[in-house]
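Lab notebook, design round three. We kept the backbone fixed and only want residue identities now. Task for the bench partner: fill in a sequence for the structure below.
Input structure tokens:
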């Protein structure tokens, strides 16, 4: 036997070890890479998780208890967005901060989706919009996801984006979007049944976040703690609200958790109005987060029917 044909035990062991490592790595490789999506707000992320199922990875930039109008643009967000295929924007000038994140990510292949496309937008300004009106959005009220019917429109926009990003799984995405619609149909009947005793009730809200929610469930917003969006109330405005609450017999005040509670608490002391601190965004970005958010909000509000304070 030639010396060149003799293999040392060390050489055999090394090659065997390399082969085992390679085989192990192969066995644990995913069958296909998941589509990565970023969303401006948790509700868009949750709906995307539902429609995308196991074929997507989704995260939200803003959090449930943070003001979605104002998000600090961090380099870490840009790095995360540099790796996504799709960015879901709320649109209607709510998340203009997202543009800086997308641009800073230098992601040339990203698909940016305006999830407000197709929504029947409420509170579109008819006159001139300037700083004297506060934080008024020229394109209309941007909190459209709080009408669950608009969740169907968001789901359709997400489905179309996923079909484009991953055509091989289009049938899965289409099927999940259909199931989302079916789930909505079951839940909306239950939600409206629970909210029926409150139909036509006068309410106060802190910010204009709840216009779509009120429209969906027959509530009548008769005043805002903010005299104009984003403008803190004056003592005069609060006193005017006290009189309005009494006149309109408003029994509920809905406040976002990222605003100070001192003014709603003052109104509670003066009138007995029940204060609910509810987040406009869902807490979970999981597939059931969007629907659970309505379960939680409606569960809280309908407690008024059986034992809530009266004005």
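Proposed sequence:
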């Amino acid at each position: 036997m030639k010396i060149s044909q003799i293999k040392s035990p060390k050489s055999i062991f090394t090659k065997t070890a390399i082969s085992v490592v390679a085989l192990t790595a192969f066995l644990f490789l995913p069958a296909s890479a998941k589509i990565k999506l970023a969303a401006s707000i948790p509700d868009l992320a949750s709906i995307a998780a539902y429609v995308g199922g196991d074929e997507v990875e989704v995260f939200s930039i803003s959090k449930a208890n943070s003001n979605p109008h104002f998000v600090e643009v961090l380099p870490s967000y840009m790095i995360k967005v540099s790796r996504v295929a799709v960015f879901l924007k709320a649109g209607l000038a709510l998340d203009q901060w997202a543009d800086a994140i997308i641009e800073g990510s230098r992601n040339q292949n990203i698909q940016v989706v305006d999830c407000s496309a197709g929504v029947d937008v409420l509170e579109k300004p008819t006159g001139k919009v300037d700083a004297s009106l506060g934080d008024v959005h020229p394109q209309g009220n941007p909190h459209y996801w709080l009408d669950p019917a608009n969740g169907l429109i968001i789901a359709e926009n997400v489905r179309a984006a996923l079909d484009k990003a991953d055509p091989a799984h289009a049938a899965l995405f289409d099927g999940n979007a259909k199931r989302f619609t079916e789930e909505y149909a079951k839940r909306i009947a239950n939600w409206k049944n629970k909210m029926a005793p409150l139909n036509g009730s006068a309410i106060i809200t802190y910010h204009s976040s709840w216009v779509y929610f009120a429209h969906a469930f027959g509530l009548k917003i008769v005043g805002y703690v903010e005299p104009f969006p984003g403008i803190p109330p004056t003592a005069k405005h609060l006193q005017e609200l006290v009189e309005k609450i009494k006149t309109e017999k408003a029994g509920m005040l809905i406040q976002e958790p990222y605003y100070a509670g001192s003014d709603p608490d003052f109104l509670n002391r003066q009138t007995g109005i029940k204060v609910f601190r509810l987040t406009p965004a869902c807490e979970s970005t999981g597939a059931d987060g969007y629907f659970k958010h309505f379960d939680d909000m409606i569960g809280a509000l309908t407690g008024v029917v059986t034992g809530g304070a009266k004005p």
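Keep this in mind before ordering anything: The CA atoms of residues 142 and 293 lie 18 Å apart.
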